[in-house]
Specification:
Helices cover about 75% and strands about 0% of the residues.
Length: about 475
């Protein structure tokens, strides 16, 4: 097998790489999912478990994915082909790269639909539609949005078009410029909202809820949710960090960059939680409102508080910016692959892939209304099926195999050259990647695939398969 074409693009600085990676990580998971799962799982104790999982699972696998990209010097599929050849491993490792590219494209197909909701709510807030809105009216408003396929299609199309235009302009001309605008804007808006949250009179309640642990409210299911979210919030397993890593110069430190990415991503989630729960508590609403917290509960709060029009518009602008920064990163691995592997010019690749992803997204749009009764995996709609396959199977599988490749397959010299850790830290890092992180990922993987009464059996079976596989690798 000949050496495949490598990437010729590069980041202009390590800071820009960190901003791009943070933009990829910071998205709806931070502003929508983290607050509501924290509310559902008791607050402070859940946050502590989440932070521990970030350090034990998220950070090591993030470092691994970036290192694979820089060592492979190409898009995820070609990078894994290059690395398999260099390390004398099976050509099938390229499927790991394909898994990430496909997962990112599939997630983007429904992510643009959800991001479209945020754009719709931003426009509604600007128009003052939430003024005096009741909880019942907020629920009806959200249901009416989902029931209108033409409106959902319009917002889905708009988000997709903006994403394509940015990515088509290249790494420095498109992605860097967009990130340099969106990330500072996102931070400024978040800090303004934080300043407002401090004036609500409920900021102290929000701080206590997030940072005063009550372990009596923590369940095994809460621990699993924390583990799963810690893994997914950093965009691990999608190939995004791998392709971003391929643009990273050897002069820059993967370890330092990864730490900053984790710190920034976690800080945004916690700050968003402080803002959202301050508003929720100040208006006598429930923190455990579930997935509807962002689109059904908060409009009621904004509609009844002083300055609600302004701060509601700012909040949904924040959500839109975060969603767009993540959308860019979801399509980049596929665009990079088509550009490098097939020689298709970047602009054409972006529009071609964007069109295919948009078309798949139309199915998600329809799954909320016209196709609501059409089921694919069990009782799941097309949207639920795509979400289940990518989130519960493709991402954890990708992260698990990245850890296996770095820890068991990659030459120690290549690993050391890219990570530049001291001997003691490298030994700890490899030990965790060989056993700690994979076992944790497999626990989440098993719990997401089977019913509660069969999780133990599923975990034991997966661990057995893993042990046998590693034994065979070491023998080889």
């Amino acid at each position: 097998m000949s050496q495949l074409k490598v990437s010729n693009d590069s980041w202009s600085s390590q800071t820009v790489f960190i901003l791009a990676a943070v933009g990829s990580a910071v998205g709806l998971g931070n502003l929508w999912k983290f607050p509501y799962i924290t509310g559902e799982n008791g607050g402070g104790a859940f946050v502590l478990v989440y932070l521990a999982c970030i350090l034990v699972i998220g950070l090591p696998i993030l470092m691994s994915e970036v290192a694979l990209g820089r060592a492979g010097k190409a898009n995820p599929i070609q990078a894994m082909s290059n690395l398999a050849k260099e390390n004398g491993a099976s050509k099938l490792w390229r499927l790991l790269g394909f898994n990430g590219v496909l997962a990112g494209a599939l997630i983007l197909s429904f992510y643009t639909v959800i991001a479209g909701w945020a754009v719709a709510y931003f426009m509604q807030s600007v128009r003052g539609d939430f003024s005096g809105i009741t909880a019942e009216a907020a629920g009806v408003n959200f249901d009416e949005l989902l029931a209108n396929p033409l409106e959902l299609l319009f917002w889905h199309t708009l988000v997709t078009l903006v994403t394509i235009v940015i990515v088509s302009k290249g790494v420095k001309g498109g992605i860097e410029k967009a990130i340099n605008f969106m990330l500072p804007g996102l931070l400024i808006i978040l800090l303004v909202l934080l300043g407002y949250a401090m004036t609500t009179g409920s900021f102290g309640d929000s701080v206590r809820f997030l940072f005063s642990p009550d372990f009596s409210k923590l369940t095994w299911e809460s621990v699993l949710v924390a583990m799963g979210h810690a893994f997914f919030t950093l965009s691990i397993g999608l190939g995004t960090m791998m392709v971003y890593g391929s643009y990273l110069s050897k002069e820059f430190s993967i370890v330092k960059a990864s730490f900053w990415i984790v710190i920034a991503d976690t800080a945004v989630a916690l700050l968003a939680g402080l803002v959202i729960f301050s508003i929720v508590f100040a208006n006598g609403l429930e923190p455990g409102s579930g997935p509807g917290l962002l689109f059904q509960t908060l409009p009621v709060a904004f509609g009844h508080m002083w300055g609600g029009w302004f701060f509601g518009s700012l909040f949904f602008a924040l959500v839109v910016m975060a969603a767009l920064s993540s959308a860019i990163s979801l399509i980049e691995p596929a665009v990079s692959w088509v550009n490098q592997q097939w020689g298709v010019e970047r602009t054409q690749a972006a529009w071609l892939l964007g069109g295919i992803i948009w078309l798949i997204g139309v199915g998600t749009v329809l799954s909320f209304n016209e196709w609501k009764g059409l089921h694919f995996l069990g009782e799941r709609t097309l949207f639920d099926s795509l979400d289940f396959i990518t989130t519960n199977i493709m991402l954890p599988l990708g992260g698990l195999l990245m850890a296996v490749f770095i820890a068991w397959v990659m030459k120690p010299s290549t690993r050391a050259d890219n990570l530049e850790l001291s001997e003691g830290w490298m030994n700890l890092f490899v030990l965790n990647l060989r056993w700690g992180a994979p076992i944790a990922v497999m626990v989440v993987f098993a719990s997401n695939l089977v019913s509660a009464d069969r999780v133990g059996f599923m975990i034991a079976a997966i661990l057995g398969i893993y042990a046998v596989y590693i034994w065979q690798v070491r023998r080889g």
